[in-house]
Write a structure and sequence with these properties.
Largest sheet: 2 strands, antiparallel
Number of helices: 12
């Protein structure tokens, strides 16, 4: 992080871009709830990806090629893993019959919550990692310093990869989301109305203030993101374990583009029907990388190439051989 102190312009650009885009999104372009068209979703997706790539160019100019590759690797890993998360969002919206006009508002507040919790996870995680190194030891004829927390993360990712290979998000199609932890928490804290009230999170019925089902959906989305963060946050630690700035900025750019990506994905799910196989391989690769890191270093460029190649192959596979259903 020391190099960032010498280049406050990077922090300034990041802060200005994120705040300006959020204010533009909430206060101007989407002040009134409306259904997001494919054209609008595609335009926003292209905008967020362009902003991320432009910011990575600034990182390359000020910090160098290694930090540039780390940003790119962490960004695309988070982007890829988040797609699987979006399949669950589709199921949640379908289960509660959320109107298309209200979905953008739910995702907006869900993303804001994700920004807050990801900051806690990433900065706390990097701080903890500094205290989880074992004393230097000899292993296979080499002196190594093993971080037992990164090793645990690696095992978790390999297990998650194996589970992802043999499962699919559509397997949750019959899941009762009304019994999920998020839904139970809201019903425990608030009285919940049976009906929606437009895009409002709270309503008044018979003089009593009540949470609407839309608020329940927001909380379920937040809980879902927290569960997926168990995979995605350890995964990006494999890219830059000692640089929270690179991890957080790449994570934020990836997450902020999820809403527009969701509306495209909802209409073109067939393009990602085989993606879970690719995600399984990515998780397993990153898990192995974390475990062998003390003995064998896999560069950021190689990691980015592997992740990008797997994503391209899985999407092409989805297009060429889609599921019959």
């Amino acid at each position: 992080m020391d190099h960032l102190i010498n280049h406050p312009v990077i922090l300034g650009i990041f802060s200005v871009v994120i705040i300006a885009m959020l204010l533009l999104d909430l206060g101007v372009l989407n002040k009134k709830s409306h259904a997001i068209s494919n054209r609008e979703a595609a335009l926003w997706s292209a905008t967020w990806i362009s902003l991320a790539m432009g910011f990575s160019g600034i990182i390359y100019y000020y910090l160098g090629a290694e930090q540039f590759m780390q940003f790119q690797g962490a960004y695309w890993i988070e982007k890829a893993l988040s797609v699987d998360n979006l399949f669950v969002f589709i199921l949640v919206f379908g289960y509660f019959n959320v109107a298309k006009e209200a979905q953008h508002k739910v995702l907006f507040w869900g993303v804001l919550g994700a920004l807050f919790f990801r900051a806690i996870f990433i900065f706390t995680g990097v701080w903890i990692l500094n205290y989880t190194y074992l004393p230097e030891m000899e292993l296979f004829g080499h002196l190594v310093k093993i971080n037992y927390l990164l090793t645990i993360f690696g095992v978790i990712l390999i297990v998650a990869g194996i589970k992802s290979w043999f499962s699919h998000s559509e397997d949750d199609g019959d899941k009762d989301f009304s019994k999920s932890p998020g839904s139970k928490l809201v019903h425990k804290l608030f009285t919940v109305s049976k009906n929606f009230d437009g895009d409002k999170f709270f309503t008044i019925q018979n003089g009593l203030k009540m949470a609407t089902p839309l608020f329940v959906v927001v909380v379920i989305i937040e809980f879902t993101d927290l569960l997926f963060a168990v995979d995605s946050i350890p995964a990006i630690f494999a890219i830059a374990p000692d640089d929270p700035f690179i991890l957080y900025t790449s994570n934020i750019f990836a997450i902020l583009g999820l809403r527009s990506l969701y509306f495209l994905l909802a209409n073109f799910m067939y393009m990602f029907s085989r993606l879970h196989y690719g995600l399984a391989l990515i998780l397993t690769f990153i898990g192995v990388k974390m475990i062998i890191a003390p003995l064998f270093h896999i560069s950021s460029m190689v990691s980015l190439g592997v992740v990008g190649g797997i994503l391209v192959i899985s999407i092409v596979w989805s297009l060429l051989i889609p599921y019959k259903e």
